[in-house]
Amino acid sequence: MLRSRVVTFVAGVILLHASVFGQQAVPGAAAPAKEHDHAELGPHHGNLVEIGKEEYHAEIVLNEEKKQMFVYLLDKEVKGYIAIDAPFVAVNLLMNGKPVQIKLKAAPQPVDQKGFSSCFGAVSPELMDALHHPKSDPKLAMKIRNKSYSVKIAHDHDHAGHDHAAPVKKK
Fold it and tell me: Is 46 helix (H, G, I), strand (E, B) or coil?
């Protein structure tokens, strides 16, 4: 009973946020994952990936039109940001069968301590195109609290109605 009230409240907050900022709410965004105690989507409506044995999470936010990728580092419960002392995090992948590293530069948020960042991003048409190729095998690499992590990035969205060679058109 309490859980359904919490889910209803969170869904209402998301819908309010979406209406205030002119964004469409993502159905099911507030529903907790069946095997986890956190939402399936991050606070910016991006896909979540586990870091370590669910020690942390990374929210992957893609803007296909602008060819941008942002990564937000989040805590175990996906309730708070984890800021790290790093100028970038890396995406390691294969392009045309060759290993490539693309750096996502630190983009500190107002909540981050000076010299630290919980957000990293880049504009990269090559990265965005590579994420659509099944053989690119993209992995996010970073160091959090002196421990190195490498996390597979899964590109997950409905492919119907658009061509990956062209920007996605919003209706």
Answer: coil
Q: How far apart are CA 76 and CA 82, in angstroms?
A: 10
Per residue in 64-119, pLDDT (tens digit) is: 999 999 999 999 999 999 999 999 999 999 998 899 999 999 999 999 999 999 99
Task: State the Cα–Cα distance between residues 29 and 61, nearest whole angstrom.
Answer: 14
From 69, 63, 67, 68, select the one nearest 49 (Cα to Cα): 69
Instruction: Give the integer Cα–Cα distance in Å for 124 and 44.
Output: 20
Sheet holding 68-74, edge to edge: 47-51, 56-63, 68-74, 119-123, 98-106, 88-95, 139-144, 147-152
At 43, the pLDDT band (50, 70, 90 cuts) reads very high
Q: Which amino acid is at 72?
A: Y
Q: Rounded to whole angstroms, how far apart are CA atoms 6 and 145?
A: 32
Look up residue 40 and give its amino acid.
E
Q: How far is CA 143 from CA 20, 40, 82, 102, 155, in A?
A: 36, 23, 11, 16, 22
Q: Domain extents for the chain?
A: 1-31, 43-152
Q: Which residues pair with residue 109 across a beta bridge?
A: none
